[in-house]
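[job 0412] stage=fold_complex status=start
inputs:
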Amino acid sequence: MSKISLKGITKKYGKVAAVDSINLDVIAGEFLTLLGPSGCGKTTTLRMIAGLEEPTSGELSSEGKILYSKEKGIYIPPEKRNLGFMFQSYALWPHMTVRKNITLGLESKKLSSSEINSRVEDVLEKVQLKGYENRFPSELSGGQQQRVALARMIAAKSDIFLMDEPLSNLDSMLRVDMRSELKHLHNELESTTVYVTHDQVEALTLSDRIVVMNQGKIAQIASPEVIYKKPANLFVAKFVGSPAINLITGKIERDGNLYYLVNDDVRIELPDVSKLNMNNKTLIAGIRAEDITVANAVEGSNSQVFNVYSVLPGGSETIVTIRRGKAELAVKLSGFTNIKVNDKLDISVIPDKISLFDADSEELIY
Amino acid sequence: MLQRLSFYRAKLKSKPEIILSIIFIIIFSLLIIVPFIKMIITTFTYQGYDLRLVRGAKKGAFTLFHYKRVFASDLSKSFFITPLLNSLKVGFSVTTIAMVVGSLLAWLFVRTDIPFKRFFQTVIVVPYMIPSWVIAIAWQLFFQNSRIGGQSGVLSTFFNIDVPDWLSFGFIPIVIVLSLHYYAYTFLLMSGALQTIDSELEEAGAIAGLKRWEILRKITFPLVLPALGSSFVLTVTRSMGTFGTPAFLGLPVRFFTIPTQIYAMINARNMGDGFVLALVLIVIAATAISINSKIIGVRKSFVTMKGKGFRANPMKLGKATPIFVGLMIVFILITIVLPIVMLTWSTFMLLPDNYSLSNMTSHFWIGESNAMISSGEPGIFRNRGILRATINSLKLGIIASIVNAFLGLLIGYSVVKNRGTRISKLIEGVAFAPYVFPGIAFSAIYLGMFSKSFGPFPALYGTFSLILLIVIVKNLPFSSRSGIAAMLQVDKSLEEAAAIQGIPWFRRFWFIILPLCKSGFISGMLLTFITAMRELSLVILLVSPKTGLLTTLIFSYKTQEQTQHVNGVTLILLLIIIIANVLIRLLAKTKTEQSISLG
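[job 0412] stage=fold_complex status=done
writing structure:
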């Protein structure tokens, strides 16, 4: 039985569907991420799971127990869903000490004071904030505030954690640290986590599964590896990966046993697509920047010569943008490189690493 | 069906803002909308007063009689046209003077390096806290002449100056007195606006080659336009609707404005005509407000622009500093110190127009009743009536301020939580409606409505509860504004975080929302307290000897020409208002100024 189950969940604002009939099953203990650009409905979906937003239609349940269904007349308010929620703004109560922030909810649960004390000790230990009990949120750094929010959520001992872009207010160094802590905590507590982010790197690094959302609909649900390597459609391909995936539009040409994608500027060898019925259809090939290798062009060979447009060294890697006619490709090389602007390069791609999309439906076909 | 029901019940239970909205809509309907409708119905039906004027008229039958009489009859001139013209003349003259003075003062204190800023700023908002008719009373002490009723003032007695009638009563004194009260509104709103303007914006204009005048016209002026618009509407509507000052300085020479005309009509039990005039005032105020929000509404964002963190670059006054400081001192002396000193002095004078030392007496403060002096009214400290009025006023101020602050916050909660829905707009709008109701007319309606039990309310005729109720309702516009403003400051996730943690609504409100709105809550309280303490026209019809307030007592001493008692009780009222203000400032570190707003 799935930990959280969404059936046909829809949220409309006026006539616009912010979330459009979503079906989703969250497996117990997994770290599931809702990923998408702003306005795709990911936060609304999360808030509907929490009960902070009410669906227009659909059914929401947890371990078989219905939390929301207009049809069946069931509505469990957020207070009674027993979930943990972490807000983008942390939502720490500014007029209360760290301790009070953690205990206010516990007091409402009518726990004994010894139980409350031991939980406070315990969670502050976990988030490494011992000794900060009597500080006010404004006396803490952003990272520490984040930990208090985390502690407050853990202390309630719910086994479902919902997190709404919790790391987006931190600076980039701290964000990397917190990622590993969140993942560690997830493994330690074996909680089911639904995590919302627009940061694809965060999604790839943290998740067991990623749900990519676009315009209120689910574009793909899969493991990070599949999302990255075999995106189900052009939207997912473009949204995930940095630099963005290289897309080349063209038609298939057969040359003996080999297939090529051809347009006015380039000709790229494809994997064996003999099983696809691709007569004269327009296709789009997606190639990740790291799957392209380059070499200095040899004068006079019949290879395709690309011109180097820009070189962007980033320390561990260098992104080289190359052009030929209207075609532009980003190539990722490890470390630094000797390549300079206006150098002439020859490229090669391993055919099996290419994803092929139908230009009309934008769906993955190979 | 049952499922449906249980679904909505569960939903309602977890959404207190919906329950609150329903409660507010019911209460507002009973206390604001029904009275308004009754007012309109009254204007379209024959009233008891009309029966002896119109043959065969039946009480309660439909008629356009009142409209004809007010707008198109021989009486129109004295009933409607003259009071309207007087009100418009007063309103626009006061607004012009008050806005010029207020803006200049605001500029002086925000944009120059004038010394003693804090002191001056605190002192010049004193007129805002005290009732405007206190200045009117002080005015009479100086400028009254012996020709029109009562004693003569300082000028005619002391300096033997023959004060002309136009300076002692009527249009000119009313305008001057009201201007001395209302400049504080413009001052507060304009200082607020000027403070939010980054002087870099003006410097950028200078660098772009604009001349000083062009900078003022093209950059500064548009940025403070919303504040100017708000001050304009606030001052026009309030000065046209005010009762006390035109009553004190206008009635003796039969100079009527609409509010005093309404008072005269209602006092004569001529409800129908009185309410027609009340509707005129309501239409004027509502029009001014809606035009203002149409024009300014879009630009509102300017006002709150940046908050802090800009570079203020005050203009150096240099050699002119002593001149400005001198002017300020003179201004404060004339408008604040002198009136209060004179009020105090006059309470120690046995005969009201004899300023010699031999005429000094403490009788009016501590003397026992003496049939020879002021109709046997005992001294202020021995006077049971004054004690009772003081207690009533304090009780009214304290209860109303607490109730209004809570109501304001709850209204703010349901408006902000339901934001974007029609209910939210409806509640916000209706809560603001009492602002445009003239106090006298509003209380006349309440008087009729509550003479028998009404809805869930028992008959409240002649009770303190009725006074309390109407003061609370009349103050709703301000408390709901400050409640909404306070709630907007509280990020909604703060309450959601508590809901998720299983904390029930009452605890959320008590432990999270209330503490976070503390400063708005307290400044809302102070504002209600001050307005409740100085309320006159709203309560004058409703008080009985038992439920009299300081203000109504002053008014009745005034009509009996008991000058020393008028002035003494006025001093007590001033003292209470000032002490409350200081106390709350110390307690909450908030300012009265923050709570002034219109919308």
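[job 0412] summary: The mean pLDDT of chain A is 91.
[job 0412] exit 0
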